[in-house]
Amino acid sequence: xxxxxxxxxxLNYKLPTQTLGWNQYGAGFENMGKNGQPEAFxxxxxxxxxxxxxxxxxxxxxxxxxxxxxxxxHPKLYNRDMTVEPTRLGxxxxxxxxxxxxxxxxxxxxxxxxxxxxxxxxxxxxxxxGYTVPGGLIGYHLIGAEVLExxxxxxxxxLADEMGYxxxxxxxxxxxxxxxxxxxxxxxxxxxxxxxxxxxxxxxTAFTCSQALAPATVILTDAPASVKQIFxxxxxxxxxxxxxxxxxxxxxxxxxxxxxxxxxxxxxxxASASAVGEIARHIARRGTCNLVGTRPLDGLVEVDxxxxxxxxxxxxxxxxxxxxxxxxxxxxRCELRPGGATVFVGAxxxxxxxxxxxxxxxxxxxxxxxxxxxxxxRLQTLDEMFTPxxxxxxxxxxxxxxxxxxxxxxxxxxxxxxxxxxxxVVVSVPVAQLxxxxxxxxxxxxxxxxxxxxPNGTMGKVQLSNVYLCNAQYTGTSGLxxxxxxxxxxxxxxxTLSPGRSVAxxxxxxxxxxxxxxxxxxxxxxxxxxxPQITGLPLMSLKELPEKLPEVAAKLGExxxxxxxxxxxxxxxxxQKPE
Length: 579
Prior knowledge:
By secondary structure, the chain is of the alpha/beta class.
C-alpha cells in the first residue's frame, strides 16, 4: 500500500478548510455550479446530530439527468425555489465518516466507510438523497436527520473493508438490478381491504376457496351463488352491484374507494380482453388482480405498463376454479428460470449490462442469454465484455441488433430457442412498443420484467390469458432497499458478482458536468464514476488509461475491468494530500 493511499484510507492528513461542489440552482446544465465550474464551500463542523463525511466516489446515473432536465418540476423537489434552496446531484455514493456529532457517538466512528441508500421515506413522504436532499457531487458535506432518521432507520450501509470506493458507490444501481428479481408485489389479498369480485351474468360455476381470505368489504358484481356463500362466511361486508356497464366502473371505484382503486380484484371466468383491461384500470397501488378460469380471452389485454413498474400492481391467476390457488410466492416467481433462456432488451446501457452480467455470474442462471441493442458499437462492447464470461460459466450468449439484422426480433428469438420462446424477457428501455414486442417472444409460462419505467398511464397490449392458463408473470420494480445493496455486497464478497466490471469511465470532480453529458449522449458503454477528492483528472474511458495513466492501467483486471488495485494506483498517483 502506497504512502498516499494509506494516508487517504486512514485519514492521516490535515482536513481542508474548503471543498468544491456542484450545486444545482435550476433546470439545465447552465444552472449546475457557477459558470460551468464547481464552487468552493467551507468544510463545515457537524452539529450534535450530524456527521461530516468525505465523498469518495459517485456513480453518474441517467436519473440524475431527470433532475437536471426538470429542475423544480421534478416530483421529488416539490416545486421548491432552487435559486434559494439548491440541490446537488449524485445519489450513487461511497463515503467516509470524518467527524461525528456528540449525539451520534457510539453509532458511527471516524474513518467508518458507508454507502448511501438514497430512496428515502420520512413519515410516508418520498424524498431522496441526490434529489430532495443535496447529494454527493462535493468533496465534504454534512449528513443529518434527513438521512439518519427515516421511516426505515438510517439509510447508510456499513461497508466491508474489502470493498473498493467505486464498487461501493455502484451498490446502488446494482441494488436496483437485484430488486428486479426479489418479490415486490403483494401476492395475497389485503386483510381488511376492499375486494371487488366480477363474474359473468348467469354463471353457475361452483367456485371454491382453499385458503381463508379476510377482506373487510366485498363488492359482488354478477358473481355466482358459490362465491357469495364463500365470502358471506368470512364476516366481510357484502355489497352487491350487478349489471354494471364499463362506464359504471369509475363511479363504483370513487364511491367505495375514494378513487384510490380496489385493493384486490377477482375476475371469474374472464372472456373479454377489453373488459379485463377496463377492470384492471381500477386496481389500487400494490393491489392484485386475480384471473380465475379455464378458457382464453378473446384477444390481448391493454394494461398500464407504467403502473406495473411504479405501482407494483400484480396480475395473478389460476387455471381452475379455486380462487385462492392464484396467490402466494410459491406460485408467482420473480427470479430468472434456472437453466432457461433469457432475453435482455436494451442490454448495451449501464443497467442492461448489469442485468446481463448478473445472469451470467448467477450460479443457477439461464443457459442461453440473448442481448439486444440498436448500436453495433455497443453490441461489440457487450461481446468483448461478456462472451468470455459466458464461456467461463458454461453459458451461451447471442447478440441481436434489430436495425441491422435481416431477421425480425421474433424470428431471431424463436430460432435461438428452437421455437420455444424465452423463459424470461427483461426490458431496460422505457419504450412501450418494445415492451409489447418483448411479450410476443415470451413462453406461455414466462416472465416479463419491466425494469425501465414508462409514465403511469402508458398502455400496452399483452397476452394476459397466459397469467391464469399457464402462470405467466408480469413484474416491475422501482427503487431499492438497503437490503438490496447489502445483497450485492454479499455477492461481491462471496466472489459471485464483480461490480467493478460496470465501470467504463472515470473522472475528477471538475468533470461531473461532462460526465452527465456523456451519460446523456451514451458515450461510454457502462458507468461513469467521479472521484470528488481528485482534481485535475480528465474524464476518460478505461480504454484510454494505458496511454494516459499507464500506472493505473497496469492494475486493471481482464478485459480492462476496474479493480481495487487500479483505484489504489489512481489515488496514489493523482490525489493531492492537503497540507
